[in-house]
Amino acid sequence: MIRLGLMAAIAAFGAGLGPPAAFQAMDGYADYATFRARVLELDASERVAVTSLGKTLGEREIYLLTVGMGTPDEKPAIAILGSVHAPHLAGSELAVRMARLLSEREELLQRVTFYVIPRPNPDASEAAFRKPYADRDANERETDDDRDGESGEDPPQDLNGDGWITLMRVEDETGTHMPHAKDPRVLIPADSKKNEKGRYVIHTEGRDSDRDGQWNEDGPGGVSFNRNFTFRYPFFKPGAGPHQVSEIETRAVADFLFSRTNVAAVFSFSPEDNLMHPWKGGTPEQDKARIRTAVASGDGPIFEYIAGEYQKIHGGKNAPEPPKGEGSFSEWAYYHYGRWSFAARGWWIPSPEPEKKEDAPPEAKGKPPRKSEDKRGDDLVQALQWFDQNKIDGFVPWTPIEHSDFPHKKVDVGGFKPFYLLNPPAKELDSLAAKHADFAARLAELLPRLAIHEAKVEKLNAGVFRVTATVANTGYLPTLSDMGAATRELQPLQIRIDLPQGVSIADGTARRRMDTLGGNGGKQEISWLLVAQSAGPHQATLTVWSPPVGTDSKTINLE
Amino acid sequence: MKTLTTALLLTVLSAAQDKPPYKPMGAPPAPRVPAQWNRYHDTHEVTELFQKLAQTHPARCRLESLGLSYGKREMWLMTITSFDKGHPQSKPAFWIDGGIHANEIQGTEVAAYTAWMLLESYGENETITRLVDERAFYIVPMMSPDARDAHMYEPNSTHSPRSGLRPVDDDRDGFFDEDGPDDMDGDGHITQMRIADPNGRWKKHPDFPNLLVRAKPDERGEYTLLGSEGFDNDGDGRVNEDGVGYYDPNRDWAWNWQPHHVQHGAYRYPFSIFENRVVAEFVTAHPNIAGAQSYHNSGGMILYGPGAKDDRYEEADQAVYRAIGKAGEQMLPGYKYMNVAHELYEVYGGELDWFYGMNGVFAFTNELFTDFNFFRRASGEEGPFGRREELHAFNRYLLFEEGLVPWKEVKHPQYGVVEIGGVKKNWTRQPPSFLLEEECHRNMAFTLYHADQMPQVSVASIETRALAGGLTEVTATIANPKLTPTRSAVDVKRKITPPDRATIEGRNVEVVAGMVSESRFFTRPEEQKLNPRNLRIESIPGMGARHVRWIVRGAGPYTVTVTSIKGGTVSRTH
């Protein structure tokens, strides 16, 4: 209780009084107060409506920015989420900027709405603005991460007083880690099978406060937004919460999305990047599984094409491998919410171009190298080089300390600072936001486009007509993804004929359900047999619609 | 003369009043809160009964609301235990709920009967008195109170509404609950529709003309069946495709939850149904709950999990389930102890799996009422409703034909002249009045047996032995003389609740070392190096014991205290 009270006090401080610049892990990033001010500023635009989906335990708002024109909820929509993984601070920064950039695109907004939730887990995001800075993804619910019956009893401690929670390495010949050959600051796991000997045992910086032989296994909070969703939910794991969608934040976002039947696609900033590393389609055999865990075979090529579009716009290369997304938002959005789901890390430490082997014989191209190279820790070595080149203070040099838990051992504190591997220098945010806004606009262009392509009236006899509508999709995406169809979360296309008095249908109903229309010319013919009681002229109206696809209508003369 | 008769009569009456009433075995004949158990209670009546019980028995009963349902009805929870004999949360507790599928209406009656019996028999019946003293009972009689009233007072069938009342766009056409069944004759019962049709494949049963049976392969039929009473309300060419609800509140629980394309009836995510969420929050906050029972209908089943074939219960826990379930088969004639996934149908996200998989609690679901009760014999038909002939014979001979709406002609907007008729909503899944009380009592008896078999720790013995150097070895046996372990195997495996603890206290007692052993001979004890005064015991098995030993400095007496979240707290001094 005391802990929570203290957090509330800090939150109040952050919200109103504190000078953010002096209290933050990375320069130029917005704490909650600054973020809130920026969001509320956007409300001034007539194309942005700012609302809150709920208030967190830390009393912060989960803001929603509806970027649209006219009746936004009646247009096909793309949902954009910022930092679903809270330490990924850039997500929130980019999402707010995207909202502003997209609000300037009048032509686009006539057709498509963007629902932007820039900071879905604001309590966790605030950890970057409160010392000691730790790689924390959890909200402020009290949790018992090590399931020992007590909550938060073994948090990390800032032993060297530098404001950062980094690592401790304890010199020990039974250790698990050894220095990297190219840069000894980087520690990599020793492989005993290769006769490598470990030199260090690694722990998070801190003491074993509950004396259970584990270090810092039950810190403050909480539940991770990005581990709390229903697909591949990690039951009983730290950060997963008491059950799926248990949190104010996840429930608010899920309930909002379920309430918006017009959402066609979801884009999130997340380490579970599927735009630099596109999801591969599964096999037709996997499509038949009752519980789907593979991308639908028909959706795979579309994910790859759209990832290609992203890569063209982004221009980056050699993005890091995404983590396994258990309980993640982006996988939920595809597998359970049934929408196209795209996730971008957005930025990573650039790596030098791999040497081009232009003389290699053509048949060797595209094949994996024969011998797998040992790349353990290379990305971190490279990160240190990049820090050095760009004068970024992202690493705490290993420095000896006295540690009472290890009385006769040599203990150093040091390692990468939280946030620096995942987030760009703030000066890059504007140009990155522009690229991602361009991608969101490109994605909007690729949405299905529905049209009553042709409406034919045949007079079969006096007062008897056959009306045939050809409905076509001229957009790139099909009107439903295969997974969308499988989940039965979205409304299929429907078509309706409205008739004047005195004209009736001889073959069934006015309103009918249609098939999914494939992209780039998928079409279906629907016909009605009509009987007119009186001589014309009669007019009828055809309307075809589905909330995530759009609508079209056409008036015809029965003659 | 007249005066004399009156006086005489009064004397006789008062003599009769002086003597206790002749008591049948079973329910108390003169309860302080009168109740009638051969009828069904609506939400208001259950509320009134529970409020009266709470007012009348304040020393053993508290009533609270967990919140308001979607339709703004209270979610009543009653706690029953002797409050003067320990805080409810210090005692092993038993969970009882009914009516999560509100049309399965007698579940609520069994839960209410149990509350009433526990309170009204306290002090009269020794077993019940002991149970109310030793255990706590948490009872939610109506898990889905909105739909209970809807079943009783809106047109429905015996099968509806299984869902709660939140509107859902079942046919995904953008309209919500717009095309449910219609009570075409206004009698409150949604029955069946048939149309006379020489090309139909159904005909009248030779003995029971209201019953339709399939024509033989080479025989001409008389009727075509057209489904439930109703028409196409929304002009999409389909009939009754989007009625009240639909979600299944018993597919909303977190363990092994799957979305509705995998598990029909799942709503948005686990506990997206508020009525369930408040229950789940209460249960999670009360880890002293060690046993649970949900009441459903029908078919005479004592169901245990897992609900899905890809899930598995721990071996040791299955043995406990089986011992309790098999005892239930004897108490509930015609009921069968059955697994959900392998013997009924697969269920993802069922309540009983959540109780077990995420709370480590042994939980049963009883499917109340069985066709065995028609004529006290097995009908020979698998399935929840038994043989239709037995049902119709019972209807003729014992219900005097009251269970059916006879077929009659009505005009249908799409089909023309059709006939409607069939079983009433208050028949087939529900026992008739004269069987209801028996159903309540027998199921309560099974549940109280289970409640009595929840763990109960005791310090069975303390022995001391002098060691060299002024040290003493103190050995205690911690026993659990009940079927259920203090922590189920799944609880231990997933670390759901903290382990049991044994501590030693005494003036000037300094604990030098401590250990726990499965064997009374300490053949392979486990020493606890950190904080040996407070020994952690993973679990005390059912009908078994664990042994703890301390090496201490300092004279006795020694007090050994055992704290078990699900098995209670006891102390003993030696």
Explain this structure.
With 559 residues, chain A is α+β, with helices and mostly antiparallel strands. Chain A folds into three domains: 2-139 and 221-349 and 424-446, Aminopeptidase (3-Layer(aba) Sandwich), CATH 3.40.630; 167-217 and 376-416, no CATH class; 450-558, Immunoglobulin-like. Helices cover 22% and strands 23% of the residues of chain A. In chain A, the strands form five sheets. In chain A, strands 1-2-4-3-9-10 form a six-stranded mixed β-sheet, with helices on both faces. Chain A starts with a helix and ends with a strand. Chain B is of the alpha+beta class and 574 residues long. Chain B has helices spanning 2-18, 43-56, 106-120, 126-134, 145-153, 274-285, 315-331, 340-344, 351-359, 372-375, 388-397, 433-452, 489-494; strands at residues 61-68, 74-80, 93-98, 136-140, 192-196, 202-204, 212-214, 223-228, 289-297, 301-304, 336-339, 362-368, 404-412, 416-423, 458-466, 471-480, 500-505, 510-517, 526-527, 534-537, 544-553, 559-564, 568-573. In chain B, the strands form five sheets. In chain B, strands 1-2-4-3-9-12-10-11 form an eight-stranded mixed β-sheet, with helices on both faces. Chain B has a five-stranded antiparallel β-sheet with strand order 15-16-21-18-19, with no helix packed on it. In chain B, helix 7 (315-331) runs antiparallel to helix 12. Chain B is elongated. The relative contact order of chain B is 0.11. The mean pLDDT of chain B is 95. The chains are: A alpha+beta (559), B alpha+beta (574). Chain A binds chain B through residues 147-149, 211-213, 229-230, 233, 235-236, 242-246, 251, 254-255, 258, 261, 290-291, 336, 486-492, 494, 508-513, 547, and chain B through 169, 172-174, 232, 234-237, 254-255, 257-262, 268-272, 280, 284, 358, 494-498, 530-531.
